[in-house]
Every structure is written in C-alpha cells, then in structure tokens.
Specification:
Elements lengths: L16 E7 L2 E7 L11 H9 L9 E4 L5 H7 L6 E5 L2 H13 L5 E5 L11 E6 L7 H13 L1 E12 L4 H11 L2 E8 L2 E7 L2
Helix pairs in contact: 1-2, 4-5
Length: about 200
C-alpha cells in the first residue's frame, strides 16, 4: 500500500532533493523528499497563500499547520521576530522542516510532530495558516477548521488556501459557521484564499 503525505510514517525510501522557489520577494531553497506534499516544487496553492498573507494586528505566535517540509512557515519566519510554529503528522516532513529551518539559522521556529493540533500546547495564536491535506478527506479538513478556531486568540486570523474543485464552497460554509468574519482575500486560477478572524 503506497504511503500518503499525511501518513505518520512514510514507507517509501528516502531520496532527498533540493528545490528552489521565489517566495515573498526572496529566492529560497528547501530540501524535499518522497512522501511529502509537493515534493518537486513549492506548489501553486502555497505560493498563492504566501502572496496573499498579511501579518495580523494581533500580537503573538504564528502556526503553520500541516507544514510539509516547511515552505510557508519558514518563509514567514524569515521576515518576523515572532515565534513561528510548524506542525505536521508526517515524521519525514517534520525532519525536513527542521533541516530547512537549520539551513537558514532560524531561531524563532518551533517544529513539532502533531496529528492536527494534538501536540500543540498553545491556544492563543495570532494567526494560523494552512494549505490543508485535502486528500485526507472532508471530515479531517473540517476538524482542522474547528481546532484552528479553538487555538486562536480573540482577533486572531485563520488563513487557508483551497481549490474550488476540491471543496472551496463547502469550506467557506464551514468557516462561516465558526467565524463571524470570513473574507475571500484572493482568487487565482481556481484557488481561493480565505482569511477568517476570530471575534
């Protein structure tokens, strides 16, 4: 049985590779591998999310949930003094994120292995960002949304990218049920960026 990027312990043999990407005005390099999401390049959804993201007015830590090898969280950590958390259930992804953070000498990063929010002790994040594991199914995605809402401080923001064909309309409905303020910040080639603020 083939492994998925949202599996805890990928069974495919490791074969690391270097990938380069231009993110938020910087040329960045990451180490990637088999059995992690978008192993060959930083995917269009993550790029679109990073392009759209604005730092929240709320003060405090940021969380990249389902971080993969870390392109979103690491890119953001490079431009702030805030602590940026990266979390993923995939042990290989967590290891790669640690390697990529170390490559840039980042001291303001915490990287944890976590099944959604199970190993996240903080519940007062200023922002949570995610390119969610769509292939894990709608139930998992909506649980992620529920838990994200619970882990934000008042005034904190939840940023998510999702394709229209992969459930953006139903995702918007779910977010509307949790947050009073849900904004469609950007649409690009079928990708929707939602920003939801906790009241």
């Amino acid at each position: 049985m083939s492994s998925h990027y949202f599996d805890k312990s990928p069974d495919k043999e490791s074969e690391e590779r270097k990938i380069k990407s231009y993110l938020r005005g910087k040329n960045l390099t990451f180490t990637s591998d088999h059995s992690v999401f978008s192993k060959r390049e930083v995917d269009f959804g993550s790029k679109t999310l990073l392009e759209a993201f604005d730092w929240p007015d709320a003060q405090g830590d940021i969380l990249d949930i389902g971080c993969g090898y870390g392109p979103i969280g690491i890119t953001l950590a490079k431009e702030t003094e805030r602590t940026v958390w990266l979390a993923d259930v995939n042990q290989r992804a967590v290891s790669l994120s640690k390697k990529n953070a170390a490559h840039y000498g980042l001291q303001n990063i915490k990287i944890v292995e976590s099944d959604l929010f199970s190993a996240i002790p903080a519940s007062d994040f200023a922002a949570i960002v995610t390119n969610p594991p769509i292939r894990a199914g709608k139930k998992v995605i909506h649980s992620l949304f529920d838990q994200a809402h619970a882990h934000l401080q008042k005034g904190g923001e939840f940023w998510v990218v999702i394709q229209k064909k992969q459930g953006a309309p139903s995702a918007k409905e779910k977010l509307d049920s949790l947050f009073l303020n849900v904004e469609t910040v950007k649409k690009n080639k079928g990708y929707y960026i939602f920003c939801s603020k906790k009241s």
